[in-house]
Automatic annotation (TrEMBL):
<dbReference type="InterPro" id="IPR003439">
    <property type="entry name" value="ABC_transporter-like_ATP-bd"/>
</dbReference>
<comment type="similarity">
    <text>Belongs to the ABC transporter superfamily.</text>
</comment>
<dbReference type="GO" id="GO:0015833">
    <property type="term" value="P:peptide transport"/>
</dbReference>
<dbReference type="Pfam" id="PF08352">
    <property type="entry name" value="oligo_HPY"/>
</dbReference>
<dbReference type="InterPro" id="IPR003593">
    <property type="entry name" value="AAA+_ATPase"/>
</dbReference>
<keyword id="KW-0067">ATP-binding</keyword>
<keyword id="KW-0547">Nucleotide-binding</keyword>
<feature type="domain" description="ABC transporter">
    <location>
        <begin position="6"/>
        <end position="254"/>
    </location>
</feature>
<dbReference type="GO" id="GO:0055085">
    <property type="term" value="P:transmembrane transport"/>
</dbReference>
<dbReference type="InterPro" id="IPR027417">
    <property type="entry name" value="P-loop_NTPase"/>
</dbReference>
<dbReference type="InterPro" id="IPR050388">
    <property type="entry name" value="ABC_Ni/Peptide_Import"/>
</dbReference>
<dbReference type="InterPro" id="IPR017871">
    <property type="entry name" value="ABC_transporter-like_CS"/>
</dbReference>
<protein>
    <recommendedName>
        <fullName>ABC-type dipeptide transporter</fullName>
        <ecNumber>7.4.2.9</ecNumber>
    </recommendedName>
</protein>
<dbReference type="InterPro" id="IPR013563">
    <property type="entry name" value="Oligopep_ABC_C"/>
</dbReference>
<keyword id="KW-1003">Cell membrane</keyword>
<dbReference type="GO" id="GO:0016887">
    <property type="term" value="F:ATP hydrolysis activity"/>
</dbReference>
<dbReference type="Pfam" id="PF00005">
    <property type="entry name" value="ABC_tran"/>
</dbReference>
Amino acid sequence: MALLEVNNLDVRFALRQGEVRALRDVSFTLDRGERLGIVGESGAGKSVAAFTILNLITKPGYIAGGSIRFDGQELTTLKPKALQKIRGNKISMIFQDPMMTLNPVLTIGDQMVECLKAHRRIGSREARNVALNKLRQVYIPSPEKRLDQYPHELSGGMRQRIIIAIALLLDPDIIVADEPTTALDVTIQAEIMTLLLELCEKHNVALILITHDLGVVSQVTQRTLVMYAGRVIEQGPTREIINDAQHPYTQGLINALPQMATPGHRLNQIPGAMPSLANIPPGCAFHPRCSFSKDDAGNLRRDCREQVPGFVTSGNCRVACHMVRDLVDSEPRDNGRSKTSQEVS
């Protein structure tokens, strides 16, 4: 049994102009100690998926359907008090901006001690020693001094290290990192990701990394989910997705990386923009931007225009794309059948 199982997750926001589906039939698993990346453009639903795991979705948002099971326990139906024993304790989260996460009027030590006391029966002196040990683990220089400092007295990289230390305070089974290096310089980003990878491997902690940076995903994660307009459109081993992306959207993301452009020329880009979740196109949501959605005569394929693609298996990846389905169907079949999503679920 997987440590975390998410099945057919459906998240909606009840707005005045109508209901918006932020996540549509999102399913994935996470094993103990595994590192999973979730990638996609802004608005793809990455952060909503992360927040939903911890049930941090607030009104007008709500979970309309699906299941989230942690270590065999259903989380979507847990009462707030029971969920508090898991949130922060068994599943920790690292947010994008450390200055928004840390309380500016409390010292680092006060915040770490408060976190420990909220989940454990522990004295202030013991809690301070635990906090000090965690700061050492994330290579904070002069940790005794840092405990008595306020967030504004520290650099951005130092603050993010402290956020990681807080996430590790209660020895969680899973860390959810929502674009943890967005506000940092490139050199500091590399240090933070190296640190996060080292700590996860050392303590056998599972990691869900939310990012738009495929370069980071390729260096840190073992499996990757690619999301578009609230839906998973490709998932599989990270190396296979990076080296041989199947979905046209994933191919577009990889081609848009700076190193894929010819020196002196404009960067490659996917035409168009992510659709509004309030106005998702029928059929495949990516078809207005997809060069493969047209037939040889230049007309839109009917299936791309009208049918939401189901998953097919290509190699070790699952892909939701009509074109990939056609390619799989044209290959030699085992016992006269191609594999569908139902057969590999």
